[in-house]
Design brief:
about 300 residues; mainly alpha; two-stranded antiparallel ribbon; 2 strands; about 70% helix; about 0% strand; globular
Length: about 300
């Protein structure tokens, strides 16, 4: 284990991780020249459309903060991005949010039809496991742990559980705010926490550090989802690059308490996430958490000024 690298050059490091993620995703994506071409086109359409790449960046930064070289973290970080892209395809389907635009481009089902879009989502989720299995810079033990982390992040207590609750209601056995937190931890926090845990796995970090980083990712994902709900309520289609107003009638902090209270909650959730970080990897990841939340908040403020 090495000590955490300085966060003074964080912007440069984030930009580097972003660029490397884009290159690696292009390398890992199925070729559009291979049959079935329509399916592979649909997978590439959703995966390679420019996004924030928060999950691979978080994987790389966590591995670095834990004292490892970032190279081996890149492929599993991109695997998480494949799962995220698959989840967006499913989010946008007519049976869910019925969205027409994602990242400034037509959604998968708008381009390729519902049938192919569903198959593309399945293809991307399975391809994520394939690229981890094929990674030659990870040990067999690391691959096993990474595979388990990915599977847990998707399953019926992870990503798909959060989607189910978003569609059909929160857990009524819990107080309303606690139930909403649980949904956010599943819907968004699950992949954030997987990114942090996998970064720790790549670095062979101690179990206690991996657990703390898992909780940091969960809480940061909670903050991210809260701000996404704020943007959904305040942005326009043009400024968001995707359909907005999808959360009308759904359980969100904005619906419960209004925009300003949700904004304040997002900052509190960020601070709670940072409080979980081990001291040896605090500087980089706390700075990135702050950068991520601040950037999203500025987008909301720009939307509010333009309203």
């Amino acid at each position: 284990m090495g000590t955490d690298q300085t966060s003074a050059n964080l912007t440069q490091r984030v930009a580097s991780a972003y660029a490397r993620s884009e290159t690696r995703l292009e390398e890992l994506a199925p070729s559009a020249e291979r049959a079935p071409r329509r399916l592979h086109d649909a997978m590439r359409h959703s995966l390679l459309t420019a996004g924030k790449r928060v999950r691979p960046i978080l994987t790389v930064l966590t591995a670095e903060a834990c004292g490892a070289e970032s190279g081996p973290a890149l492929t599993p970080g991109c695997a998480i991005e494949m799962i995220h892209a698959a989840s967006l395809i499913l989010d946008d389907l007519p049976a869910m949010d019925d969205a027409s635009l994602r990242r400034g481009r037509p959604t998968s089902h708008a381009m390729f039809g519902v049938d192919t879009a569903m198959l593309a989502a399945i293809g991307l989720m399975n391809h994520a496991f394939d690229v981890v299995a094929a990674a030659d810079d990870l040990s067999d033990g690391q691959k096993t742990k990474i595979t388990a982390a990915l599977a847990a992040s998707i399953g019926s207590e992870g990503l798909v559980a959060g989607q189910e609750e978003d569609l059909h209601g929160l857990d009524e056995t819990l107080p309303r705010e606690k139930a909403l937190e649980v949904m956010h931890r599943r819907k968004t926090g699950a992949l954030f926490s997987a990114a942090c845990r996998i970064g720790a796995i790549v670095a062979d970090a101690p179990y206690a550090h991996a657990e703390a980083l898992h909780e940091f990712g969960m809480r940061l994902g909670h903050a991210f989802q809260t701000l996404d709900d704020v943007l959904d309520a305040s942005a326009t289609l043009e400024t968001a690059g995707k359909d907005v107003g999808n959360d009308v009638g759904k359980p969100t902090l904005v619906a419960f308490h209004g925009l300003e209270a949700a904004r304040a909650a997002a900052f509190a959730q960020r601070d709670a996430a940072i409080s979980m970080l081990p001291s040896t990897c605090h500087a980089t990841l706390s700075a990135y958490a702050d950068l991520l939340v601040t950037t999203l908040m500025k987008r909301h403020e720009a939307n509010a000024e333009g309203a």
